[in-house]
Amino acid sequence: MQNVEGDFRGEIWPSVVLKIIKHYQEEGQGTEVVQGVLLGLVVEDRLEITNCFPFPQHTEDDADFDEVQYQMEMMRSLRHVNIDHLHVGWYQSTYYGSFVTRALLDSQFSYQHAIEESVVLIYDPIKTAEGSLSLKAYRLTPKLMEVCKEKDFSPEALKKANITFEYMFEEVPIVIKNSHLINVLMWELEKKSAVADKHELLSLASSNHLGKNLQLLMDRVDEMSQDIVKYNTYMRNTSKQQQQKHQYQQRRQQENMQRQSRGEPPLPEEDLSKLFKPPQPPARMDSLLIAGQINTYCQNIKEFTAQNLGKLFMAQALQEYNN
Amino acid sequence: MSRFFTTGSDSESESSLSGEELVTKPVGGNYGKQPLLLSEDEEDTKRVVRSAKDKRFEELTNLIRTIRNAMKIRDVTKCLEEFELLGKAYGKAKSIVDKEGVPRFYIRILADLEDYLNELWEDKEGKKKMNKNNAKALSTLRQKIRKYNRDFESHITSYKQNPEQSADEDAEKNEEDSEGSSDEDEDEEGVSAATFLKKKSDAPSGESRKFLKKMDDEDEDSEDSEDDEDWDTGSTSSDSDSEEEEGKQTALASRFLKKAPTTDEDKKAAEKKREDKAKKKHDRKSKRLDEEEEDNEGGEWERVRGGVPLVKEKPKMFAKGTEITHAVVIKKLNEILQARGKKGTDRAAQIELLQLLVQIAAENNLGEGVIVKIKFNIIASLYDYNPNLATYMKPEMWGKCLDCINELMDILFANPNIFVGENILEESENLHNTDQPLRVRGCILTLVERMDEEFTKIMQNTDPHSQEYVEHLKDEAQVCAIIERVQRYLEEKGTTEEVCRIYLLRILHTYYKFDYKAHQRQLTPPEGSSKSEQDQAENEGEDSAVLMERLCKYIYAKDRTDRIRTCAILCHIYHHALHSRWYQARDLMLMSHLQDNIQHADPPVQILYNRTMVQLGICAFRQGLTKDAHNALLDIQSSGRAKELLGQGLLLRSLQERNQEQEKVERRRQVPFHLHINLELLECVYLVSAMLLEIPYMAAHESDARRRMISKQFHHQLRVGERQPLLGPPESMREHVVAASKAMKMGDWKTCHSFIINEKMNGKVWDLFPEADKVRTMLVRKIQEESLRTYLFTYSSVYDSISMETLSDMFELDLPTVHSIISKMIINEELMASLDQPTQTVVMHRTEPTAQQNLALQLAEKLGSLVENNERVFDHKQGTYGGYFRDQKDGYRKNEGYMRRGGYRQQQSQTAY
After folding, report:
1. Angle, nearest 10°, between helix axes B368-384 and B347-363?
2. Phi and psi (nearest 5°) for A14?
3. Residue A303: closest CA among chain B residues belongs to which residue?
4. CB–CB of A232 and B873 under 8 A?
5. A239 reaches B (C-beta below 8 A)
6. CA of A215: which chain B residue's CA is closest?
7. CATH code assigned to B678-844
8. CB pairs below 8 Å between A and B: how many?
9. Nearest chain B alpha carbon to A294
10. Which of A158, A159, A230, A235 has the most B C-beta neighbours within 10 Å, making it the best mutation to test the interface with B?
11. What is d(CA B820, CA A152) in angstroms, rounded to the nearest whole number?
12. What secondary structure does DSSP assign to B405-426, as a single string?
């Protein structure tokens, strides 16, 4: 995951952040994710996210619910109350950092295709609960946009596009932009709050989080393995066919040589591709996504362990100091 | 001889029986019923004939007269009414008419009526004059009579051709005419009768006649002259009837009659003819009698009664005055036996006959040889009574059979000079020469075996929950007694082979019974002196264990057929197991090597094997050997078809898979109810032993990805229990076990104990054991031990050390036991700990990986395989062909490139962590 080139950055209004958190707390739990639309405006190379509204949760009952209709109506209504109505992206919650999926790719592609500046804001409620707000904005890289436009995910195409899991998404740096008055209020509040309120940050319990992450990582690795096996069979089949094709051609050639020596006309040319239908190449996009996901997990774990190690050393030092 | 039959009550029932028989008979031409002759009463019965016919015909003629009157006054309504009545009356007289032919006067009235109606119909003017009712009745009647007359078309046409023959008959004459016609028949002999029959019978009866004729051909008796034909048809048809309605005495009588002429050699053909005639006449008479009975309207009871003595005096064994000698009796016996198995033979009658013969033989002091011979045959024909394998003996037959065998045994014991054997030829039999030992053909062993089979069949076919079953079961003692007697007899006289067979029979009746007396004796061995007389008397019988030992050992030593030995071994094991002699039972099972080759045995033996294995398992459980119990029961329980495998019922599920035949065969294999092994007990024993094994195992291998299930069925039950959304208090036995397992998982032995042993479970399962209390104490102990193990497995990670005293308190086990259990676990490397002797504590080593470590290990494994797969992809990229990696793995490993990739692998793993 590379950072976005240039000075492009996002500014989020605190009300948006609070709305997103509230949305998750009210409607999402466990592995379920919540989604919503971000509204704002583009100022020079700055993306200001000033408002948002949630998507309703999907249930079995309202299968014919028209999302587009809903969005349009919401935006129309918001315009009436003089709120920025430029559609600048969308947000989604995540469970232990698992968000690199095909669905996300597809919808982000369609957003970005329509409005170039669109971002997806990923909110991690679990990390937030542990004490540090986790909000990240991503965009698809221009390379990936190209590939997605082509809709060709064959190994060759991806190879040509020179795309790897590292260059799929780019992270947009974001800041939460408070008004000065709010900043003042925050300072005042901080002075009053007791230290005990922040104890989540110092929690030494790590096994649960780590275990979950490992479990998820393992599942992805399994998927990856399967994918590779699939690819392997494909490769084997192709090479086998190549061989056969080769042999066939050679035989043909020999026969033609013989015929020539006998003064007969050569055999007519045949469509080789009809004789040897190349096996369907497996789409490589999935494996790319899995790799990307694995990468995210690894980074998560790395981050987490680093922090935890720090905490542990701190705790040890404290212990020694007390003794 | 006939005086056996002259008892008054007998005759009554007989006649009524014969009446019933006729009633149930379908209307047809073959009325040869009761060809019973005794000429003395002939005159008497003639009156009966007249009255029977009279009554019906008078009724008819009266009706006809009214119709004629109505016709004269042109009252069609009246005509219609009367005609309907006439039709009904005719229906009543139908059976007589069938016999006698349609009376001419009846035909005449039909013809006349039709003509008359047609006339009226044509007479348009007259019709107009008629009142409405009459006109309506006319049309109805006309239609009716047209329809009705269709049945009598031939008669009517023949009548119309020569109407003068019966031109002006009145009712008086009419009767005479019928009389005369019947007389005529007799004079005309069978031919006319045959035509009669042909005329009167409907199509099906004609067919039956043909069929009967065929039977005649088969019958030896059909050699009689042509004149006898319809007599013959008569008698055979009666036979076939009686075949349908089992055991009717009349048919029996006919049999006698048929034989009578053959025994009386000096009877002349002319006489026979006369007799036949008389018989035929009598047929008719008796039939009419029956009809009267059937109606029961007219009170002519006296006359019916008059006919009765006729019937009952029939059965005549020998002609009067014949001297009863051996030769005669044997001849007679052979005669009877010849009929055996033939189609037309009435089996019930045969049995009766044979019994008569025995009585005659006994009365005339013909010696035991003859009686034994006849008795053999009686029993054989009792067995033959049911032609179908699936049906079973009726209780009275069964009783008779038992009595008969007992009597036979009495005779055989009383007369040691009688030799009985199946290989004695008929010719070499010696039945009466008392100077030499008597020799009789017949096999007592086969009879007894057959008897045993019949007993099993009776038990199979009786509802096990009825009082009837108990009644039948009481016969078991008798069966055993007979077997014992035969055994004693054969021990003296039989060959080893026979002895083996009878021993097996004895074993089969002994092995499944729990010997309470011996058990009691074992419990209170020394204080025999204080016991009362009665107790001692009770205790005098041989211990069944000793008995089994003796019988089985004999069979092991002497038997040459594999099957008997196999059965004996299995029964022996079963008996051992039943009496908790586990080690003997197990050793015998292992020594016999039956487990290897039982699949080649026939199904009944396999069922016996299954039963034995189950019993063995239950025995092991009682001894507290959970593992052995589990192993023994695993095969039976895991299939889910325990019921079927033990021969205790058919599964509904497989009903579609088998056809009727197979089902019958399987049904015959079923074990009678009193031998059943309680299936719930079986399942409970299995589940509890599975629980005792599985729960500690599960606790020990909680985080092991590759752990195996010990018992699938137990896991299934656990899963079923987990699926329940609401958990109430357990109801069924399974729920109890599941609840107990859950408690045990937590190491909570007290709850576990209360689930396994409580009122409900006692009633359902534990009280079924002979030594229930002993089993319960064993069970409690087992639960405590296994709970302790489970507790240690589950919670060892939270302890640094734990005092053995605490454990001993927690599980209410004494310290040495706790010590030994923990030591065993440490030795088996199940528990990573060491014992600290001075403080009596267990110190945990904590070498077990934590959950995260386990996960990390698993992840590493997965990554390994991922990398390997990835390497293969790389191979393709390098242009090597598919299969290269597989074929030349070793060579490839040595490749230089490998090292580089190895380094890559390390990198990968590092990033993963």
Report:
1. 170
2. -60, -30
3. B913
4. yes
5. yes
6. B855
7. 1.10.10.10
8. 54
9. B912
10. A235
11. 70
12. HHHHHHHHHH-TTEEEETTS-S
Instruction: State whether A236 and B856 contact (CB < 8 Å).
Output: no
Q: How many residues does chain A have?
A: 323
Nearest CB to B866 within list A211, A224, A236:
A224
Give the mean model confidence (pLDDT) for residues B176-181. Answer: 45
Does residue A298 belong to the interface with chain B, where contact is any CB pair within 8 Å?
Answer: yes
| Residues B588-626: tens digit of each pLDDT | 999 888 888 888 888 888 888 999 999 999 999 988 888
Q: How far is CA B667 from CA B606, B649, B661, in A?
A: 15, 8, 10
Chain A residue with Cα closest to B883: A236
Taking CB atoms and an 8 Å cutoff, what residues of chain A touch B909?
Answer: none
Q: Which residues of A touch B873 (CB under 8 A)?
A: 228, 231-232, 235
User: How far does the CA of residue A264 sit from the closest CA of chain B (Å)?
Assistant: 37
Which pTM does this prediction carry? 0.55
Question: Whose CA is closest to B672, among B650, B638, B649?
Answer: B649
| CA nearest to B881 within chain A | A239
Amino acid at A178: N
Q: Which residue out of A239, A244, A246 would a mutagenesis test of the B interface target, given it has the greatest number of B Cβ atoms within 10 Å?
A: A239
Which residues from chain A sit within 8 angstroms of residue B870, using beta carbons?
A: 228
**pLDDT, tens digit (0-9, with 9 covering 90-100), for B448-491:** 888 888 888 888 888 888 888 888 888 888 888 888 888 888 88
What confidence category does residue A105 fall into, taking pLDDT thresholds of 50, 70 and 90?
confident
Lowest pLDDT segment from A156-160, B566-570, B681-685, B789-793: A156-160
Whether A232 and B872 lie within 8 Å, measured CB to CB:
yes
Question: Which tokens is B640 given?
Answer: 């889910």
Q: Would you call B145 helix, strand, or coil by DSSP?
A: helix
In chain A, count H helices and then E strands. Answer: 10, 9
Of B437, B517, B454, B448, nearest in space to B485 by CA: B448
Distance of CA B745 to CAs B689, B702, B742, B784, B842, Å?
Answer: 15, 11, 5, 12, 21
Mean residue pLDDT across chain A? 83
| Strand-pair category, B418-421 with B833-836 | unpaired
Give me the torsion for CA of A64, A69, A70, A71, rounded to 10°: 130
Query: Taking Cα atoms as reference points, which of A24, A12, A23 lies closest to residue A51?
Result: A12
Topology of domain B326-519+543-596, per CATH?
1.25.40
**Hey, is the C-beta of A314 within 8 angstroms of any chain B C-beta?**
no
> ipTM for the complex?
0.78
Classify residue B656 by its DSSP letter.
Answer: T
Contacts of B881 in chain A (CB under 8 A): 239, 243
For residue B688, which of B607, B622, B593, B609 has the smallest C-alpha distance?
B622
Q: Are residues B231 and B36 in contact, defined by beta-carbon separation less than 8 angstroms?
A: no
Nearest chain A residue to B866 by CA distance is A225
Q: Give per-residue burial for B516-539: e unless 16+ CB within 10 Å, then b.
A: ebbeeeeeeeeeeeeeeeeeeeee
Chain A neighbors of B871, CB-CB under 8 A: none
CA–CA dist B428, B719 (Å, integer): 74
Tell me the residues of chain A between 201 and 230 that have a Cβ less than 8 Å away from chain B. Answer: 207, 210-211, 214-215, 217-218, 221-222, 224-225, 228-229
Domain ranges of chain B: 52-161, 326-519+543-596, 678-844
A188-192, B273-277, B520-524, B802-806: least confident range: B273-277
pLDDT at residue B429, as a whole number = 65
| Residue A74 near residue A53, CB atoms below 8 Å | yes
Q: Do A224 and A287 contact (CB within 8 A), yes or no?
A: yes
Are B12 and B251 in contact by the 8 Å Cβ rule? The answer is: no
